């Protein structure tokens, strides 16, 4: 977990840089999923709506859904994760990021690192 990020109840993290939010899943979510073997992400240029499913993360144990924590336009996806899904497990807060979204600045209901740690019992 990283102190400068925001977190959702769906176990996504959000890093904000101006009007672009970089989104990934937390190490907690990656551990719960197990070994990630497939990642499906939305297309660049697509418009996403907050709190809706925008992708899928499959592991050897289960299939998880990627929820959009913000509304906006997908401006970049992490092709490296599509090609090498285990990056989600190996480096969820770094090379395992998933999508970048240009958004209106509304993060909705998010938690800071301390609140997320309490939420997950960490």
UniProtKB/TrEMBL annotation:
Single GO cellular component annotation? glycine cleavage complex
GO terms for biological process, alphabetical? glycine decarboxylation via glycine cleavage system; protein lipoylation
Q: Where is the Lipoyl-binding domain?
A: 20-102
* Database matches in SUPFAM superfamilies: Single hybrid motif
Question: What cofactor requirement does the entry state?
Answer: (R)-lipoate
Where are the N6-lipoyllysine modifications? 61
What is the cofactor note? Answer: Binds 1 lipoyl cofactor covalently.
Keywords, sorted A to Z: Lipoyl
| Top-level taxon in the UniProt lineage | Bacteria
Question: Which residue positions does the secretion signal occupy?
Answer: none
InterPro entries to which the protein is assigned, alphabetical: 2-oxoA_DH_lipoyl-BS, Biotin_lipoyl, GCV_H, GCV_H/Fam206, GCV_H_sub, Single_hybrid_motif
Does the record's keyword annotation contain Hydrolase?
no
CDD domains linked to this entry: GCS_H
> Member of which family?
Belongs to the GcvH family.
* Oligomeric and partner information: The glycine cleavage system is composed of four proteins: P, T, L and H.
The UniProt function text for this chain reads: The glycine cleavage system catalyzes the degradation of glycine. The H protein shuttles the methylamine group of glycine from the P protein to the T protein.
Q: What is this protein called?
A: Glycine cleavage system H protein
The record lists the organism as Microbacterium mitrae
The organism's lineage is: Bacteria, Bacillati, Actinomycetota, Actinomycetes, Micrococcales
Q: Which gene encodes it?
A: gcvH
């Amino acid at each position: 977990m990283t102190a400068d990020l925001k977190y959702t109840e769906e176990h996504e993290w959000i890093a904000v840089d101006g009007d672009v939010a970089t989104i990934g899943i937390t190490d907690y979510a990656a551990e719960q999923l197990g070994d990630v073997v497939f990642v499906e992400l939305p297309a660049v240029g697509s418009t996403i709506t907050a709190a809706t499913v925008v992708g899928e993360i499959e592991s050897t144990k289960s299939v998880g859904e990627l929820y959009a924590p913000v509304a906006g336009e997908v401006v970049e996806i992490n092709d490296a994760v599509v090609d090498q899904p285990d990056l989600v497990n190996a480096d969820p807060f770094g090379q395992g990021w998933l999508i970048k979204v240009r958004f209106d600045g509304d993060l909705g209901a998010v938690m800071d690192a301390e609140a997320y740690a309490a939420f997950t019992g960490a």
